[in-house]
Amino acid sequence: MNPDPDPDSSDQALAGRDEAWETWLVCRERCEDDEPLEFEDEGDYRDDADELAEIIAETRHAAADQAAAEAHIAASGQTAALAADASVAMGRRGPGMPGSAEPLAGEYSGPGGAFATGQALDVAPGGPVLLGHADWAAGDDDRFDGVSDDELLGIISAADRCEATASAVKHTAVAELIRRRPASGCTPQGPAGMPEAWDEFTRAELAPALGESRYAVDGLLDLAYDLTVKLPGTMALFSVGVVSRYKAQVISHATQLLDPAEARAAEAMVLDRAGRLTPGALRAAIVRAVMKVAPDKARKRREKAAKSAEVRWWAEFSGNAALMGRELPPAEVLAAGQRIDSWAGQLKAAGLEGSAGELRARALMDLLLGKDSRPDQAAAGGKNLAAFAATINLTIPLATLLDLADRPGEIPGMGPIDPWLARDLAAAAAQNPKTMWCVTVTDKQGHAIGHGCARPKPRGRKKEAAARKAQGRRGTRSPPRISTGRRAGTALGCFAPPETGRTCGSASTRSTPRTATTDTRPAATIPGSG
C-alpha cells in the first residue's frame, strides 16, 4: 500500500521510528536556518513575484533544454551509452557521495522530483521513510510514470541504501541474539556488552528460522559480532546505507584476526571512500590497511589459510561443471595463470575457434590432462605441450626489500601481499638470470620522479663472451642507468638484492629512501619447460 503522498505528514509519522532520518531532518532544518547573510537584509525573496517568476522561467527553460537534448539523443540511439558515460563521470550517488554533490538545474515537480541529482531524497539516509517515498513514486502500476531517467536512477540508489539499512537492522538483531545466547562461562564484555563466544546451538536455532544452511548462518553470526564489537565505523555507514552488506563483509573478513583496536585503526583508513569504491577496490584497500596496522598477523593469516588449501569441483546449473582451487601459493597461481594464457594464445594461433574464456578453459583442461587441442595436433593424437617462460610483475617498497621495514608489496591482478611473501618472491626471482630489476623513485606524495631497469651480469665465460659479442654488434653502449626525470644530481644504478651476491652497478642513497619502490619482473621458468 502506498504511503500518504503528503511528505510533511509522512515525515512526522515516521521520523520518530527512524533515528537516522530524524537526525537528517534536524540537520536540514539547521542548514535552512543558517541562510547566507546577504538574504537576511533583503528579506524573503519569495515575496517578490517578479523575481519568483524569473526563477521559475529559468528552471523551466533549463528543463526544456534538457528534454530537447534527451529527445535528440534518443533519436540517435545513444541514450544508454551516454547515460553510462555520465554515470561514470558522476560516481556513486547518495549522502556524502560525489554523484549527488551538486543539484542539476531544472524543474522537478513530478512524483520522483525529490530523487533527482542532489535533491533532498537523493542525499537522504536509507530507512522506512525513504523507502515509502520511493514506493509512492512508483505509482499504483509500478511503472514510475512522470519520473525522469535521472530521478529513476536516484530511486534505484535510494532503494539500495534502504536495502542495506534493513540488512543492518537484521545484523543488529542477530547481535542481540548473541547477547542472549552466550557460551558457557562467557560474560558480557566491553561497551557493546557482547560475550566472547555464543552457544553452539545458536546457529541450529537461527538456520531453520531463516531457511538457510548452518554454514551461511555462521557467516551471519560472525559478521554481526564483528560489526558490533570491532567495526563500529563500518556499522554506522552500513546502517544508513552508504556501504552494502557485501562491502561490510569484505571489511570484516579482512580484519578477522585483528583485535578491536587494530580493526578500528584499519577501517579508519578506508571508511572515507568505502561507499564509492567497488568491492574489489575496497578489498585491496582494506587488505593494504591491515598489512600496515598488523603486518605480523597478515603473514600468520596467510600461512594458516594455506593449510586449508583445497580443490573443489561441482555441477553447474547449466549441466556443465566447475573446478576451483583455493588458498594456493600466490606465485604458483600467477605462474599457472600465465601458462594458461600462453597456451590459450597458442591454441588460437593454431586455428582453434572460441572466445577468450573458452580458449582459456580449454587450455586449463589441456594442461591438467596432458592433452594438445591444437587442430593439427589433436588430429594426430599429439600430447606434447610447448614450453614457455612466465613473467610476474612484483612491486616492493625498497625498505621492505632490504628488511628495514614491513610495508606491503603488490602484484598487479592479485593486489597487496604481505612483506614476508614479497621478500620471498624477490629472493626466488633473484635466482633466475632472466630477472629484470627496476627501481622507481617517488616523492613524498607517491609520484614517480625516477625509474630505470637492468639485469644482473651473465654468469660464466660463454655467457660473458656472448654478451660482449652482442654488445659489439650493437655498438658501444654505457651501462643501464636510471632516468631521474627533471631532478638533476640524482644518480641511481640498477639494483640486485644482497642475497644474490651479485651486483650490476651502484645504487646511491637518497635523503628519502622510504619512498623508493622496487619493481621486479622475473621470468620464472615453469618446471618441466625448456
Topology:
Layout: H1 7-14, H2 19-33, H3 37-42, H4 49-76, H5 79-90, H6 128-138, H7 149-180, H8 202-210, H9 214-229, H10 232-240, H11 245-254, H12 260-268, H13 279-293, H14 295-306, E1 310-315, E2 321-326, H15 330-349, H16 356-369, H17 375-380, E3 394-397, H18 398-401, E4 409-411, E5 415-417, H19 419-430, E6 436-442, E7 448-454, H20 461-474, E8 516-521
Antiparallel strand pairs: 1-2, 3-8, 4-5, 6-7, 6-8
Provide a descriptive summary of the structure in words:
The chain has four domains: 7-162, no CATH class; 164-306, no CATH class; 310-380, no CATH class; 394-521, no CATH class. 49% of the residues lie in helices and 8% in strands. The chain has 20 helices and eight strands. Helix 8 packs across helix 9 (214-229). The radius of gyration is 30 Å and the shape is globular. The N and C termini lie far apart (71 Å). Mean pLDDT is 78; it is low at 1-5, 7-17, 34-42 and 474-530.
Quick summary:
This protein is α+β, with helices and mostly antiparallel strands.
Global morphology: globular
Output the strand order for the largest sheet.
3-8-6-7
What fraction strand? 5-15%
Major beta sheet, specifics? Answer: 4 strands, antiparallel
Structural class determined from secondary elements: alpha+beta
**Nearest-integer average pLDDT:** 78
| Computed CA radius of gyration, to the nearest angstrom | 30 Å
Helix count, DSSP H or I runs of 4 or more residues: 20
The span between the termini is 71 Å
Q: What count of structural domains?
A: 4
Helical percentage = 40-55%
How many extended strands? 8
Strand/helix succession: HHHHHHHHHHHHHHEEHHHEHEEHEEHE
Instruction: Indicate the low-confidence ranges by residue numbers.
Output: 1-5, 7-17, 34-42, 474-530
